[in-house]
Amino acid sequence: QVQLVESGGGLVQAGGSLRLSCAVSGSIFSINDMGWYRQAPGKQRELVATITRRGSTDYADSVKGRFTISRDNAKNTVYLQLNSLQPEDTAVYYCKAGVDSRWYWGRGAQVTVSS
Prior knowledge:
The protein has 115 residues and is mainly β. The protein has strands at residues 2-7, 10-13, 18-26, 31-39, 46-51, 57-59, 67-72, 77-82, 91-99, 102-105, 109-114. It is built from no helices and eleven strands.
């Protein structure tokens, strides 16, 4: 059984920063692409950033220059550094990972940005 557990969410003022982590555990042979998505109240889940096993990254236009995705393959962990946070970044942030040809999701971490 594969599990993804996010951590690092919380409440922050506009302009502040947070760092999210997502640790993958369980029966794992190989973790391929990993990514972060978010879902705000009343909105659909949207892509935030992705990273390949080799470290190639891609970002939603709304977060480019403010968020940074990274990963530690030895720890089976992906990170999301969130800087210059704005109230519109408030959402539940979900981790997604491709593990052994299947996709898995975490349960989410709440990020709330106050104005």
